[in-house]
Amino acid sequence: MEVLELARWQFGITTVYHFLMVPLTIGLSILVAGMQTAWVRTGDVRYLKMTKFWGKLLLVNFAMGVVTGIVQEFQFGMTWSAYSRFVGDVFGAPLAMEGIVAFFVESTFLGLWIFGWDKLPKKVHLACAWAFSLATVASAYFILAANSWMQHPVGVEMTDGRPTMNSIWAVLTNNTALAAIPHTIAGTFAVAAAFVVGIAAWQLWRRRAEADEHRAVWRSSLKLGTWVGVVAFGALAVTGDVQGKLMFEQQPMKMAAAEALCHTESPASFSIFAVGDVADANCEDVKTFTVPALLSFLAHNDFSTEVKGIEDLVGEYQARYGTNYPDDPALGELAGQPIDYVPSLPVTYWGFRIMIGFGALSAGAGVLALWLTRKGRIPATKWFPRTALLGIVTPFVANTAGWVFTEMGRQPFVVVPNPTGVDGVWMFTAQAVSRVTAGEVWTSLIALTTVYAVLGVVEVFLMRKYVRGGIEGVMPPPGTGGDGKGGTGRGNDDGKGGEDDALAFAY
């Protein structure tokens, strides 16, 4: 493999792995803060138990997210140094802001939340939970602002062949970022909701034949997760529509690739699925099943808008950005070669549909679990817990497919040209890689992948341990207290006592 291909694989593997942790942390942190709010407002110990249990799983996931996330920014210097030099004047500000939020605000308030259960007043402790959860959202905002600049460069001017930021406000209010942020946050709620629904449903089934004193905790968790998941899917559909319209304006090739739309159509039909080799940019062997005029509506809110196909767009890109790569030895085998402006059609076409399909499956699985457990029912069949646990995977798949589509759909650019922006503010991916050897990239690729695999095993082990431990694993036994001094023994699910026991316990 060439250095470019290896570097892309390395960044893809580590980034996708890290992003498995990020949405669960963001979404679950807000749900946990909401659970604790319910406890503080009502005094119902059921909500305290929910906070303790789901908070424990949140901490495990957050720790893994921190460890895997550190590598991401280092990779810019390791294998993408040319890219770092090109975008450094722009990326410095949002990444610095994210660093301050992530490593100062998040860590400070998370620490106060972990160790402040029996030391801080209830409302102050609750404020720490909200400060941490909102800081995770702010951290995501700055990262998405930086990523959105790569998709739609704004707020810059060219100085000595490099973009220099002249408006941080323009970067932070980039319309691409403002569309991506609510879509991404909705995705985090979908992930957290499926996680809660799957585990709660499994816990209900696991103890169906016995008198479980914590059954109200699992039912409340299941109901919360289901409604959050349904609302999140609706928000994903609305915000995704906004993103689609921006994509039509800013990255028409990505939209054409998402539909395997080889020829310009007016009106354009939306492809439900295709039969044949969608990698064929001429569409000679592809048969698609479509909804007439729907793609035109998704692109421009009417049923007659023309949507350009791949063949026409290739000609436009060649006229504007050239037909061949520069004859630069740093480009390796691509030096002087024709530029392929068409992203991987199988990845973009099927990635787009996997994103939508698995998102819908996630919401549907939650609704099904809620229906099957209505009025105190708990299905006895083994397919129920298995389906519930598999439902946890669906939004992770949808999120991953969406990000792969977003990033690979902009190829061959790492910084996509803004059709209405400053000329020259764009960069080919082939120009962004560091001048390193294939052996050096292989070494880091194998090392990082191995470490991440080990971390994955550790996270699964810890998650499994604490899930199986249930409420008993995070709450002190009634009458014992959590500080070794004894307790009131009044803890129950009716909200009438047990706070002394609960407050005495810290993670």
From TrEMBL:
UniProt keyword terms in alphabetical order: Cell membrane, Electron transport, Heme, Iron, Membrane, Metal-binding, Transmembrane, Transmembrane helix, Transport
Residue ranges, annotated region (Disordered): 474-507
Topology within the bilayer: Multi-pass membrane protein
GO MF terms held by the record: electron transfer activity; heme binding; metal ion binding; oxidoreductase activity, acting on diphenols and related substances as donors, oxygen as acceptor
Subcellular location: Cell membrane
Pfam families in alphabetical order: Cyt_bd_oxida_I
Bias-annotated ranges (Gly residues): 480-490
Signal peptide (residue range): none
Protein family per UniProt: Belongs to the cytochrome ubiquinol oxidase subunit 1 family.
Annotated GO biological process: aerobic electron transport chain
Protein name: Cytochrome ubiquinol oxidase subunit I
GO cellular component, one term: cytochrome complex
Keyword Flavoprotein: no
Membrane-spanning parts: 20-41, 53-71, 91-115, 127-150, 185-205, 217-238, 350-371, 383-405, 441-462
